[in-house]
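Q: Got a minute? One more chain.
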Amino acid sequence: MSILRHISLAFLFLTLISCGSDEVKPDTTDTKPIKLEYKNNNEQNQAVLNDNQGSKEQGISETERLQRAAEINAELGIAYLQRGDIEKADLKLAKAYRQNNESVAVNLGLALLNEKLQYNDKAEKYFLEAVRLEGRERAASAHNNYARFLCTQGRYKQSEQFFKIAFANKLYQQREISYTNAGYCAFLAKEYDKAVEYYRQALSNNKIYAPALLNMAKLFIAKDQMPLAKAYMDRYKIVGAKTPDSILIAYKIEKGLGNTAEATTLFNVLKINYPDAKQTHEAYMVEFSKKDKTADNKKNE
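A: Always. Here it is, folded:
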């Protein structure tokens, strides 16, 4: 799997969703793409073992050697960034840039690093260079990630333009990622109908794509359409992982449908298994706000 596919998989908005907040930011913890995310730890470990292999190959030109070495160092930089080792990520990505500053992967890696460090001006500079190098006809990871970045800055209209360029590339094999990201960006902009359409496009591309299913459930909670939210949540449960986010969403659905016993069970799962999670705090807020309203109603009778 190429480094650009790693990066395209890295930043799914689902993993960025905090049910208690609409803030969107890179996060390398948990299941999160933020996620900077490799498919498994073995791939990360192999990336570390590959260090400097580019310099050992024979029979290639110096330019080719540097290009290959840059790709390896960019991959290492992404691996270190995913692990939270910012210093090593910086060293590897800086080395990769010296070896080949015309690489999409290198510029995209530097963009992600600077975004993580909240150096947003520098991040945008590298994102734009990655987009330029990738080009419209090959638009995929760089365009998707730049669009995601713009969305985190609240620049929703600009963000959509770059998502659409990525959609247009029929060879982009993970278009469900871009559609889901675009849907979540529309959700943040409170353009719910547009968000529904993007999520449907994602599911048309991959009908069991868990991030789109869970985001659909969250969207229909916001629209107060609990039966539809439950339908998507039931589909998510078949293919998706049980996380604090998914449990909170399921809890809100059961609460909204008046299924007290099921809601209480899910609330207890959060309290017992994730006592310090922000999702558990939000569930407490929902629980006590409902109780307070009930008590007020009784006083007024």
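A: Residues 278-300 form the longest helix (23 residues).
Q: Perfect, thanks.
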